[in-house]
Each structure stands twice: as structure tokens, then as C-alpha cells.
Amino acid sequence: MFRTHTCGELRAADVNQEVTLAGWVQTVRKFGSITFVDLRDRYGITQLLFSEALNAQLDENPLGREFVLQATGKVNERSNKNKNIPTGDVELLVESFTILNKSVTPPFTIQDDTDGGDDLRMKYRYLDLRRNAVKKNLELRYAVNRATRDYLHQQNFMDIETPFLIKSTPEGARDFVVPSRMNPGEFYALPQSPQTFKQLLMVSGYDRYYQIVKCFRDEDLRADRQPEFTQIDCEMAFVKQEDVLNMFENLIKYIFKTVKGIDYSEAVERMSWQEAMWQYGNDKPDIRFGMKLLNIKYPRHVFADKEENAHLVDGADFQVFDAAETVIAIAVPGCSEYTRKQTDELTEWVKRPQIGMKGLVFIKCNADGTYKSSVDKFYSEEKLKAIADAAGAKAGDLVLILAGAEERTRKATSELRLEMGKRLGFRKDDEFKLLWVLDFPLFEYAEEENRWVARHHPFTSPKPSDIDTMINNNPAIENAAEYLKHPYANIKANAYDMVLNGNEIGGGSIRIYQKELQQKMFEALGMDAEEQQHKFGFLLGAFEYGAPPHGGIAFGFDRLCSIMGGSESIRDFIAFPKNNSGRDVMLDAPSAIDDKQFTELQIKLDLKD
Amino acid sequence: MFRTHTCGELRAADVNQEVTLAGWVQTVRKFGSITFVDLRDRYGITQLLFSEALNAQLDENPLGREFVLQATGKVNERSNKNKNIPTGDVELLVESFTILNKSVTPPFTIQDDTDGGDDLRMKYRYLDLRRNAVKKNLELRYAVNRATRDYLHQQNFMDIETPFLIKSTPEGARDFVVPSRMNPGEFYALPQSPQTFKQLLMVSGYDRYYQIVKCFRDEDLRADRQPEFTQIDCEMAFVKQEDVLNMFENLIKYIFKTVKGIDYSEAVERMSWQEAMWQYGNDKPDIRFGMKLLNIKYPRHVFADKEENAHLVDGADFQVFDAAETVIAIAVPGCSEYTRKQTDELTEWVKRPQIGMKGLVFIKCNADGTYKSSVDKFYSEEKLKAIADAAGAKAGDLVLILAGAEERTRKATSELRLEMGKRLGFRKDDEFKLLWVLDFPLFEYAEEENRWVARHHPFTSPKPSDIDTMINNNPAIENAAEYLKHPYANIKANAYDMVLNGNEIGGGSIRIYQKELQQKMFEALGMDAEEQQHKFGFLLGAFEYGAPPHGGIAFGFDRLCSIMGGSESIRDFIAFPKNNSGRDVMLDAPSAIDDKQFTELQIKLDLKD
Prior knowledge:
Two copies of one chain form a homodimer.
Chain A: E1 18-31, E2 34-41, E3 44-50, H1 55-60, E4 68-77, E5 90-101, H2 118-123, H3 125-128, H4 132-154, E6 158-159, E7 177-179, E8 187-189, H5 195-203, E9 208-216, E10 228-237, H6 241-260, E11 269-272, H7 273-280, E12 294-297, H8 319-323, E13 326-332, H9 340-351, E14 361-365, E15 371-373, H10 381-390, E16 398-404, H11 406-423, E17 434-438, E18 443-446, E19 451-454, H12 467-472, E20 495-500, E21 503-510, H13 515-524, H14 529-542, E22 550-556, H15 557-564, H16 595-601, E23 603-605
Parallel strand pairs in A: 3-5, 6-9, 11-17
Antiparallel strand pairs in A: 1-2, 1-4, 2-3, 4-5, 7-8, 9-10, 10-22, 12-13, 13-16, 14-15, 14-16, 17-20, 18-19, 20-21, 21-22
Helix pairs in contact in A: 4-6, 4-15, 13-14
């Protein structure tokens, strides 16, 4: 060993001990004839004191930032202690030292607040990883990993590795494929998830399976998506939805406790998908704050059992509301005194292409009980008050109203709510709110192909009460315009998403385990018997030999870590991430391959111009 | 939950409890009006008793093997207890039952001794995994996984995930490559190991890293090799070889203790690569038994410092020995009375193409002190005795002698030794002997290219005492015939292999961390500066910014598990293995992909006829 102790280890009790440290030079400070060096490693920083006697040697071997240094000497009590670091009571009186390796000047400073931009830090990721901020993220990631394994082990889950070179069965997302040299003309696919394997393991009787495992999706990368990502992947046999919810909300609570010291003792809230859409305009609502949506007008065929408030806006000849399919309001607390400039800015905000609204209506609920609105000329103060009251606004609040086509308007109002929540400080990094979203529709309608697609995936079971509906009806859609009247449109999935602070951190379902039902599902998705057999013959086969009821969940590990770490960016929690073009700029990958590789794989390029 | 207890849980103390079990029907036995069913799950087997009252229901819903059954009733003490299973004191008096799923007749029996052949079992792997024999293997694998993580965690190692989509830098083995849709014409490679990433993590200061991680090699598959395999991958900074050896022999001892209950308290033996080759003809000797090699003749330029025994065979006009480069004997205990048929069979054995020898010479050391040999006409009894004595043979032993070219003869003698050890029962599945093999040559000579290749990999450091030799000599080989005289031929690597029962279970090295030395290594391997920069620019770059001394090891996880489980086949310890053509016969992968995929990836097939 090049050291007897780490740089985070020495304390007052170690004074007078002879020790050797090794680490990186963080700073060099010369005071007259003596030199102080802060030596850094993974565990901390220890101050080294080079006395005058070493000056000749230091002159011959000058130290620089990020040099790798080994130093031996006695532990000394410091006269002016540094209370900010655990080793601050002591320093090392250096007797001898060796420069183990030199460093040229780093392209950015190795500090929490580095001067390096994103591109530079990614190119020199091995230096970026030295920064304390990044190290803390990876340490948190390891702690979450460890806590997850401990909890699942205690609950009798077994880590069973599933293969990475599998079969391409592109359903939703695109597969990455791998040409097989030994089987020319054929390709493996990298798994988008171990879904079918974990189901097979249930058929095999393994009962409780888990894996923390890399998955791959060849999708166009939106900000903060990675082509390879990590899942906590779990499956259980002989369970119903309630069992899965209990098991895994306790997993997350265990992680909170172990990793963050947070007692999340309250019950995890639950909400149906429809309520989430109704109250928050979003299937993953951030429930750290209220500001719920007031649906003034909405399409009755989507939200049939809801109270209509259209009378609040109807009949005032305000064309925008009259023509709108949907009108939704939120009451923003304490913002009634927004200036014209501020409301204009909000209007511009909702008109940005990402939000895509035509305008914004507001009602100021003044502190003195009066109301002021951008649509004063259409609505009396009484009407304005009625709308504001219905939206739950109090004196001092600002009511914001969006109107337009249902889907876009609902989404936009949700975005506006989140934005206002953020601006007003309602979305705190250190406050955590879990939520189960339940009762999703099993199917979505794919307009282009005039058929159903699975909202979750094709292995998700309908609610037990909907199985007969699914079995006994023809999935074909005769009348595209009236697809919502097809019996399949109302089938609910036995599926659940876990939402943390407005992020979907996990999702799962009770699975289909009956061959006939699985075939019906494949049929609904437009697969004929031959295609079913070609793609999923092994699964349909497995269901013939005694498949047990089963269900599971998968958590997005990168996302879970980033939210636990109070960050929006998953990249900061991945040791070697890729950029938005799927490139590793440090490695310069992907890259061209040799002719020999093409020849062996029996493929060639077919580049479009 | 579909159950209150598992099928392995109920005991005498549970008698009279009302419980519900769920599992698979192992057997159905009818005795008069009552029916016994053995119900199986991951945890065990519990006997169910269906009384006469349920007969009508059973007639309507007949049970069959591998049906999934849920049964509720009272726990009953059995009159004739089954001492062989933990639940054997009780049975479940069924009050009601539900068939959760049916099963058609499985293609083979779900038993330890199944009637299913390899192909059938692989096709229906989900049924094969139900067999107790396979389940025990996967449970052992999980236990080794768990013990590994626990030990490394205690030792401050951090699990840090490294990427799977990296850059193709084919050195030794072939890479699997992945076409990048977003970067047309470019490819990722799947990692053969996280080698360079773990070194970068050391440069980043992470100090102690580990991962249990999938790796990929596109090699022609010999029996029991898999295109994807799992490594326990570890790296440490600020260490010397001795530190690594101690850390990781203690890991293996911890696994022995935790998983197998074996106290491996003795010191792990160590042997230089040269001694292993000299004494066992093998760089991964099985030291559970002796029968060491006696080198009678050997090439002096390879084993310069060894005692020559050629006088024992020289000058007898026995052309085979006189012409041979190498003559090696082993003394097989207690086999002097082998019949002609037996020695003939051994002769045929060494003549098989896999062994490739021209013949076998033997000396029987009879119990009465006389000697009898296949080369009696060349050697007097006195000479035969001298050879036998030198080989360490006692009365009753059989000396076997092979002669020929050095490399082949040494390998063949090693194979013969292992075969005889196996036949004589010296290689016990439940005896475990660890060995470190040290001091490997750093380079091997590649005849075709007349250059050096790295024996371990290009990141392995030479012994500290050999660094000057490496730096100060030109790696080019002027005289191919005399390559052994090149200074590089004698450079030893700072590398180590861990051998368990004749299998290399792990290997590693102290790494190069100096840029100049790494460049010299690349140069020795025939890479010019441009190629170095293209392939490993990131690593050479990292070495400029303060790289610490570091080293590590990687264990073959599949192999380690199989040896711990007393099996020769790693396939039995992998949930979903591939066959020798790299195919997953259950999935039928690899397979053809869609035209759309080719178009998107901008590649096409280029099949040879």
C-alpha cells in the first residue's frame, strides 16, 4: 500500500502517529519558508505541512495542482483548527515525500463550482468525476443500489441475470441490434427491458425476482434521456395489485430511510389516472403543492361523470371560451399584484411553441375584494368572482385560464401549473411526495393504423372485471370516428405508476398469464397468429405449462437517484453518460469500424446521401 | 396474495392453522376415496390431502402435473411423517381449491434426473429452470453474488456502472458491434470488459471500484464458452501486487465461508508461471493432487535454471527419446497392474487429435520391486528404476512418459496428468484448492506479424525492476528466429491469476499509469502514434492529469459459481444460456430483422455465398 491512512481519516486522537498519505494536490500555499498542501482523496482532505528543511527538495520537485503525492510524517495538532472538515484538527508534518505522478494543468478547475462548460467536462469526464459534486452523486447512487438490494434480499427476492443478446421484437421503441458473425444475416437485439424473461422466471417458479440492470432504447434523445439506462426490475408471483403496491412503496420508503435518513411514515397517496388528468392535467402530477385545475369546460365523452362549470363562462359572447373544447383555470396564490409586464410575460410563456397556446386569460383577485381581468368587457365582476371562487382562489390570488382543444389545453395548463409552482418555490428539492397513479386505460388508439396499442405494454392484464369484455369482443375498430364507443376504449389496465415529485420513477402491472388472453391482446395490437408465434412463441408456449398469476414493476434507477439527489439531470448521476446525439465524447464513440469487421459480419454500409 | 404461506414453510407448530398455499402440482396419488397431491414452489413441497368430500369437485376439475393450484384448509399432523423434507411432519387438509392455471404435459419430467436431452431442455428452458438441480445452481449464484457485494462493500469498494455502448478497439478478441442510427456509418462496441473505464475511475480518485457486470466477446465458442458472460470486476488505487493478492484471496475465502460454510484458513499457495509450467505443464495447475511432471529432457533456452535429467534416457539408441525436444514423465500411483488393454487404451487416448501425441511409453513399478516397460529392449531394469525413482514412483506405481516437441508434449503431459487424476478420483468436487500463479511473461511473440502481443492485456505493468528494460530498448524484433534473445522476452508482468481446482477463476495485474510507459507498450504491440491516439487517446490523456498507481482483478463469475457448485459446465449456472453457435434456442435468436430496421440503420447485408 502506498498509504497507511486515507485523507479523510486522521483525527486529534492520531496526533504523534507516524503515517503515510497518498492523494491529489488540491492547493499549494507558501507562507514564508513553509508550505501548506491540501491533499485530497475520495475520503477527504488533509493538510500537509512542509517545513523549511524540505525546501530544497520542493524546489527540485515543485508540486502542482492534481499532482499525485505520497507523504510520510507525524500527525500534528493544528494551532488554528478548521472546523469545516473532519480532519481539520490535525495536519501532517511531512518528513519525506514522493511525487507518484505529475499533472499538466487541468482544462477546468476541480471544484464544486467549476469553470468548465458541459462539453469540456464531458470530454474530460475523468477529471469532472473528481469534483466533489459529482462524487456525491455517484456515492448516493451506490447507496440507493445497496439499499435496494438489501431490502429486496430481506423480502426473499433473488437477483437473476437475464441475457443481453436477445431477439428483436420491436413493439414500441426501436431496438439496438447486434449483427451475429456466427449466424450471418441474423441479428441480436439489446433488451429494452427484461420483461419477458422475468415473466418466464415466474413461470419457472422463481417467485420473487429482481435485477438492477442496463436497458437499451434507440430513440431520438430528448434532453436527459440516455440510449442506455438502468432499471430496478422486479417481478413477483401469486400477487394481486395491492401486494405489489405495498411491497414497492416500502422499498422506496426503505431507500428514503437508509439513504437520506427520511422517515416517510405517511401513507402513499393513490389517485386514478382519470383523477390525475382531471385535477392536474397530467398522469404524473407533482402533489407537493395544490393549485389544482378547475375544469370549466371539457369534453363530456372523456370526463363523463364530472361536474360541468360551463355556465360560469357561457353566454358572455366571449368567442375564445365559446369556441373552446376545453377551458381550465388554476388559482395562483398571492400573485394578484402581478404587473402588466408580468402577465404579458406569462402570456408569452404559454404562447411558446413548447406550450402552444394562443393566449392567456387572467383574473386578479385583489386584496380589497375587487376583481380585475383581461376579459373585463365580457364578464361582470360578479361572474369573475364566481369563476375565481370555483377555482378556489382567495383574495390576493391570480387566476390563470387557458382555453382550446382538450389535449393541448390540459397539457398546457399542467405545464403552467408546474411553472408557477416552481417560480413560487412550491417545488422544493428536499421535500418528497410519493403517489401511486392507478387504473390507466389498457389501450390507446393509434389513428394512423386505426387499431389499438398497449398503453403500458402488451403483457399488462386488464382489470379482472374487464377480462370478459376483452375476450368477448372483436378488437377491430369498424368506425374510426367513434373509436371511443368501442368496448375496448373503456377497459382499464391492472397497472400502476409510482410518481415522485412529478416524475414517474416506476411503473408496472399485473401481467396476463392466460394464453388465450395474451393472444387476444396480440390480436388487438394487429398481430396475426404467425407474427405472434414468430415474436412471442416462447411466451405463449410457456403459458401452456402452468403459468402462475404474477406482476411486477420497474423503476428508472437513474431518475430515482437524480430526484433523491435533488437534481433534474440524470446525466449528473451516471459515471460515463452520453450526449444528446448518443455520443460518448470522451471515447469518441460511436466510430467507424475496420473493413475486416464488416467482412466478418457480412454487412456493409448503405448510407443515404 | 394468493397464499398465506409458502410450500416450504409449514411445520408441526402450525397444526390446526387455517392456511392457503399456491404452487405447482408435482404428483397426484389416489388412494381409494382420498387423493394426495404434492404441491411445489420455490421453497419446498407440501402434501395436500383431498378427502372424499372433494371428489365430485376433483372429478369436474381433474388435476394434472404442473397445474397451478391454490388450496385452502387446516394444517394437519401426518400419521406417517416424511423425514426427508422439512414440511414432512404436516399436510394440508384441503377444504377448497382453485385451479389457477392448467398445464399440458411437459416435454420432459420436472425432476432432478430428468428424461430431457440438452436440446429439449434449452428450448423449454422455462421448464428446465423448474428442476431442483437448476434452481440450486441459481440460488448458489445469487449467494455468491450477495457474498461478493457484502465483502467488497465492507472493504469500501463502490459499485459504479460503466457503459455498454462503447468504442470498438479490437485488440485480442473480436468485438460485438452495434450500428448507430443517430450516427450513420458509425458503430458502438459492446465491452469485452470495463478495463479502461475502471482505470479512468482510479484516475478520477474512486479508489476502490467493483461491478458484477456482463461482458461480451465474439469468439468462436468452444464448449462451455458464452458470447456474453459475467465478471466480478475490481480495481484499487495506491496498491502494490501484495495488497491486491491479500484483498482478493480474502474475498474468495469469504465466499467459501458464507456460501459453502467452508473455513479456508490455510494460506493460498503461490507459484511462478515458470514453476507451474515446469511442474504441471500448465499455467493453471490443479494442485488438489501431486503426480508432478518429471522433465527428463527439455529445451534449455526455456527452462535455463532447471536440473537436466537427460542422462536417464540418453544413449540408449531409443530413437523416440533421442529425437525428442522434450521428454516428460509422471508417476501414476497404484496403477502398476494395468493390463495391456488398459495401457493400450491410454496410448489411444494420447493419440487422439485433441492430445496429438505419437505414442506413450510406460514403466510398471511392480509390487515385487521389478520393473516392466514398453521400452524394455532399450533400457535395462536398472535404467528403468532410475527413471521411475526420478519421477518419484513407488512400488505399485505406473510411470507414463511422453516425448516430442516442447509445447505440445508439455501440454499433453498436463492433460494426461489431469485425466489420470480424474480417473483415480483425485479431483474431488467438494475439495477446493486455491493457487496464485505469478510472474507471467509480459509479452508473447506473434510469429505471423513478427511482433509482441500482450499476454494479459496492453495495460499490464511490467515488474518495477523491468521498467527500465522496457523503456530503454527498441521493441522491434530484428531477428525473428532469435526472438527469445530480445530483452523484451524476459520482461515479467506484474500480473497474477487465481486458480481454483485447475481453473483460472480470476486474473489481474498492476497497471501501467505512466503515459510514456503506456505509449511504449502500444508501440511494442505495433501501434503507431496515430492509432494510439485514435483508439486510446482518452486513456493517454487521462494519464497526463495525475494518474495514481493502481491495479485490479476480474473474476469469471459464471466459472466461479460452477466450480463452487461442483460442476464443469457454466451453462448450468446461467438462467438463459446460449448454445455453441451462440443461439438462444428458446427465443430463436439471433434472427432476421425488418427492412425498416436496415433502412433506419443505413446498413445492408453483404452475405458470402
